[in-house]
């Protein structure tokens, strides 16, 4: 065993990748389980302490195989948590040099993180949260939404269990400057967690929920000096995107209203990728017809998952705008031929317009009837104002709850 450890040390010092590969493949099989663990631990501790071995060795497929072998044959603990240090180094290399985000996420997910402060693997809650947020961010880079959702859920569990949010307002440190630095880092991590959570909802096409999360995020840290206001505007832009993409419903109308009343909405016109957002959202909220050119400009800013073609042959945004325009047209006409409707909407042909109208009528989002013989859509006026009064009351309660959440988040962030 001693000869193997000496050979490993010498090979690391000389960056002899071939020799290390032989030790951890053909010679590896002749070792007992205990000897394998000891040799694996020795390799990691020695490689980490070498000033020249990493990061150059990460580019070698041979060394990456050696690392894979050693990480899977370690004792319960390695001196100075060297295995965690190695995983962090691999993560940084995979992200910054190779942009291999899924591998980076899997490597970082293997970190040993314990709650016992006496353990060498102890990690405070905010740091554990940071790890899972990084993992989720990496999975999102490669559209692995299931894996990202699992990681962000773990981060959320840590936040809830540890009371991180409430601790951000406390200041029990003897060193005030140190406490400010800690609070700023905590705010940054919480901000990334919330952003990642919203992105997961967005990626899973839960657009209405994502819109609410993005908007809450865009307002919760308005008074925090540690958060860039431009970043908050981007969150507002994403809230607009998801609100527009959401299926037509009373809840969607409330979210549109919430974002429409945001004083910063017009500022999106100056931000690349969001120039058409305020105009489209305004028309959506005020029940005005969205023109084809406006739709095309808005659609050009969307991510791939937001452009998906649905089972009816329409993209998500085409369906959303068409459903909105249907409602807008119903306030202007008592009846209209589908051929005229298709031309007026400028989005789809008459057959698709008829199918969408039929679906909206069946699910109650449009009051009307279809004359298939004449190819005519008749709109029915709503009876009474009881429903609108209830909707107004519901909107008032929802708005109050959202404003209360914002105030709570703002207090926690100060």
UniProtKB/TrEMBL annotation:
GO terms for cellular component: COP9 signalosome. SUPFAM superfamilies: Winged helix' DNA-binding domain (SSF46785). It comes from the Eukaryota. Residues 182-384 form the PCI domain. It holds the Pfam family PCI. Keywords: Signalosome. Belongs to the CSN4 family. This is COP9 signalosome complex subunit 4. It comes from Discostella pseudostelligera. The lineage of its organism: Eukaryota, Sar, Stramenopiles, Ochrophyta, Bacillariophyta.
């Amino acid at each position: 065993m001693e000869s193997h450890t000496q050979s490993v040390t010498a090979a690391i010092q000389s960056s002899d990748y071939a020799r290390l590969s032989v030790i951890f493949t053909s010679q590896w099989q002749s070792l007992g389980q205990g000897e394998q663990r000891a040799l694996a631990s020795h390799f990691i501790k020695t490689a980490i302490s070498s000033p020249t071995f990493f990061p150059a060795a990460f580019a070698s497929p041979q060394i990456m195989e050696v690392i894979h072998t050693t990480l899977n044959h370690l004792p319960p603990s390695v001196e100075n948590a060297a295995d965690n240090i190695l995983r962090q180094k691999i993560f940084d290399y995979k992200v910054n040099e190779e942009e291999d985000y899924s591998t980076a996420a899997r490597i970082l997910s293997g970190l040993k993180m314990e709650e016992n402060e006496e353990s060498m693997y102890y990690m405070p809650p905010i740091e554990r949260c940071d790890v899972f947020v990084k993992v989720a961010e990496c999975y999102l880079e490669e559209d692995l939404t299931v894996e990202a959702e699992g990681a962000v859920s773990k981060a959320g569990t840590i936040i809830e269990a540890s009371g991180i949010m409430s601790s951000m307002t406390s200041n029990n440190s003897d060193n005030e400057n140190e406490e400010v630095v800690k609070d700023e880092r905590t705010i940054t991590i919480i901000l990334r967690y919330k952003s990642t959570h919203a992105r997961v909802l967005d990626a899973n096409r839960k657009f209405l929920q994502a819109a609410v999360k993005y908007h809450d995020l865009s307002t919760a840290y308005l008074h925090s000096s540690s958060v860039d206001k431009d970043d908050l505007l981007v969150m507002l832009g994403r809230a607009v995107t998801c609100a527009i993409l959401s299926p037509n419903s009373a809840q969607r109308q409330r979210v549109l209203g919430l974002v429409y009343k945001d004083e910063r909405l017009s500022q999106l016109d100056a931000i690349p990728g969001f120039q058409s957002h305020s105009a489209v959202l305004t028309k959506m909220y005020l029940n005005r017809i969205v023109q084809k050119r406006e739709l095309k400009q808005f659609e050009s800013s969307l991510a791939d998952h937001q452009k998906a073609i649905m089972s009816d042959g329409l993209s998500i945004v085409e369906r959303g705008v068409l459903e909105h325009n249907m409602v807008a047209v119903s306030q202007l006409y008592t009846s209209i031929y589908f051929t005229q409707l298709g031309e007026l909407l400028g989005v789809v042909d008459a057959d698709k317009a008829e199918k969408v109208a039929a679906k909206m009528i069946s699910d109650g989002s449009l009051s009307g009837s279809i004359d298939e013989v004449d190819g005519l859509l008749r709109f029915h006026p709503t009876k009474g104002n009881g429903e609108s009064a209830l909707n107004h009351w519901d909107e008032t309660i929802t708005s109050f709850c959202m404003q209360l959440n914002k105030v709570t988040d703002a207090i926690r962030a100060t």
